[in-house]
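In practice, a research group might receive sequence data for several interacting partners and want a quick structural hypothesis before committing to experiments. The following worked case mirrors that situation: the sequences arrive first, and a predicted assembly follows.
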Amino acid sequence: MQTYNEDQAISMRDQEIAKNIASLLNTNAINIDAKIASKLSYGRQKALANMATPSSRLALSQHGVLRLLGDYWHQHRLLITFMMCGLGIVALLLLQNSSNQDDTEQGDAFLLASDLPPEIYSNEGFGTWLSENTQQ
Amino acid sequence: MVVRKYAAIIIYVLMSFLHTHIANAEDTTGKPWATLNDEQRIVLAPLADEWDSLRPWQRERMLEIAHDYPKMSPDRQERVQQRLSSWSRMTPFERENARKRYQQFKSLPPEKKEEIRKKWQEYRNSTPEKRQELRTQHPEIFGTEDLSAK
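A structural hypothesis for the assembly, expressed as tokens:
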């Protein structure tokens, strides 16, 4: 019980000291230099502005690139979607085209121009012989 | 507004690209003999009589052969022309098997390929009696029917 009263007394004394300090500061603030007052005011406003929206420097140093990309995505998402679809289709067609060209290089013309006639290749027995000799 | 403009341009470019691609793909199918160009007619001359009775996909395959033909040496071109008719008369199943075995043949060791080439040279330079003998000895290569010596 005694301890509680002591704590309460200390707390009240601290508040009293804080009030005295605030009073002293307010009294002396009137006498402060205008230049310093202006700098302090500017600093306060800047600190408040930074609290409302994080500065771009801070954003760039953390997730700046992602943030910029995210903003761009939000602004042009329709355009980017179309571009991605377009690129996908073009890539697919080019891939199909190149695979067709590969087929052509191994196409029927080359089979017909081979050392052996196509009748040999279509012979079942030759297929068996090839399988046996390819495995060896 | 700007986004819509860009989107319209992209759609236009895509549609043009697709149209060209589809037009090129359709261009080679179902062409009657009369519409072939001179180069194609020369290559596919052995098929002139039967061309219009071929199915569109068969014509497409033959036109692919005509497309590759100029890339070949004169002796290989001659072989292609000699073998075109019999190739067009083979069934799709036979042709597909031939394609698979041709790929297998290409992957054989060089000495094995040379062995087969020599046997084939011997066969094609032989008399009918000797060919019959070779077919009996090597049915796995020459089959049971007489192959035209091409």
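Before designing any experiment, note the following. Chain A has a mean pLDDT of 78. The first helix of chain A runs from residue 2 to 29.
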